[in-house]
Every structure is written in structure tokens, then in C-alpha cells.
Write a structure and sequence with these properties.
The protein has helices at residues 19-25, 61-66, 73-85, 117-134, 144-151, 157-160, 179-183, 188-211; strands at residues 52-56, 92-96, 103-106, 109-112, 138-142, 165-167, 170-176. With 212 residues, the protein is an alpha/beta fold. The longest helix has 24 residues, at 188-211.
Length: 212
């Protein structure tokens, strides 16, 4: 019987769950077809005691090759913004809604492609398991894909970013743009404006942590 294009990661989750065990188990996941072309699964990273979980969309080219999240250009922007917002890196765990790189081959380049709703749904058990182990105080969704994967398809990042809502996975969930969106801005003025908005949203997270 041919394998379905998209199923679910649920059968691949281990019974015993720690971040290390999950990180090892995800490498065997065939819950959707993305594993067939990716170099490896890219799981989340950060301290188990992190109070903030940053959830992006999908690993990029560098992340796929290196096996670590947010090590590409977007990761550099994220690190700078966290520092400016006053959030210590030791307080942050970073991951993605989808664990395998999705791309389109153009010559020698692999161009990132947005995962579809079925792929996001198939990978959701990994993210849910991560958050259940981590139990962060705040989840920050980076970009619309991550926000809709956690907060539902009707969530609108452009209207709701920077606002906090309660969730089963954390006392507070909020959203902001993905740092890669800053890289894609058409000119320097827009890049600067988007970056300042990104930092402002992260400053609200730091204020929430300070209040706690």
C-alpha cells in the first residue's frame, strides 16, 4: 500500500518524553513526506528551564544542513532583537512548528517553501510534546504560520501581534513577525520599521516576564 502524502507524527512520539529523548526520536519521524528530501529533522534547542519559547515556521537551508534552529541570517536578527529587548538568551528556547525543511530546488539553491496546513497539522504532536515538557511561561509565535498552528486558522497576526492570550500550552501566548520577514523587506526604511516593531513586541514579552 502506498504511503499517504500526509499522515501524523503521533505514532513516532516516544512514550518517555524529555527534550533529549524527543530530539532523538524526531529523526525517525515519517509523519509527512517532508522527511524524504530534508537532510535531517531540526528540533528545538534551549534550556529546559526557559521561560520563553519562540516558535518559528520551518527550518531554513542552513538549519537543515547544521541540524540547529535559527542559525541562519534570521537567527542573527533574532539574537540582536532579543538583546535589545532585554531578554536573556538563557531564558529562551527556540523551535519551529514544522521540523523538516520544505524547499523548492532552483539550480543549486534550495528556496524555502511555506508548509501547508496538512503538514503543519501532521507535525503538531512534536510541538505539543515539546511545550508539555518545557512548560514555558510565554510562547511567542514568530510569523503567521506559527501563530495559526497554535492559535487557529482565524488568527490574524497583523491585528493581534503583541497581545497576550491564555493557552493550554502556556499561561501567555503572543505573536510577532518572523525575523525572516525583515530580511525580505523591499528597502532599508521598511526593514528598519519592521525591526523596530519586532523589538517592541519582544519588549512586551520582557515586561510580562518582569511582572511575573
Amino acid at each position: 500500500m502506498p504511503k499517504a502524502a500526509v499522515e501524523s507524527a503521533t505514532p513516532y512520539l516516544p512514550e518517555r518524553r524529555t527534550l533529549r529523548v524527543l530530539q532523538q526520536a524526531v529523526q525517525s519521524c515519517e509523519g509527512c513526506d517532508l522527511y524524504m528530501r530534508a537532510t535531517q529533522a531540526v528540533f528545538g534547542e534551549g534550556p529546559a528551564a526557559a521561560r520563553v519559547a519562540l516558535v518559528g515556521e520551518v527550518p531554513g537551508d542552513k538549519e537543515d544542513l547544521q541540524g540547529h534552529p535559527f542559525v541562519g541570517p534570521a537567527g542573527a536578527i533574532l539574537d540582536r532583537a532579543l538583546e535589545e529587548a532585554g531578554i536573556e538568551r538563557r531564558d529562551v528556547y527556540v523551535t519551529n512548528a514544522v521540523k523538516h525543511f520544505k524547499f523548492e530546488q532552483r539550480g543549486k539553491r534550495r528556496i524555502h517553501k511555506k508548509p501547508n496546513s496538512a503538514e503543519i497539522r501532521a507535525c503538531r504532536p512534536w510541538l505539543e510534546a515539546e511545550m508539555a515538557v518545557l512548560r514555558p511561561r510565554v510562547i511567542v509565535c514568530l510569523g503567521a504560520t506559527a501563530a495559526q498552528s497554535i492559535l487557529g486558522s482565524s488568527y490574524r497576526l497583523t491585528k493581534e501581534h503583541g497581545k497576550f492570550v491564555p493557552h493550554a500550552w502556556a499561561p501567555h501566548v503572543t505573536s510577532t513577525i518572523h525575523p525572516s520577514a525583515i530580511l525580505r523587506a523591499p528597502d532599508e526604511d521598511q526593514r528598519h520599521a519592521q525591526y523596530r516593531g519586532f523589538v517592541a513586541d519582544l519588549e512586551k514579552v520582557r515586561e510580562m516576564l518582569d511582572a511575573a
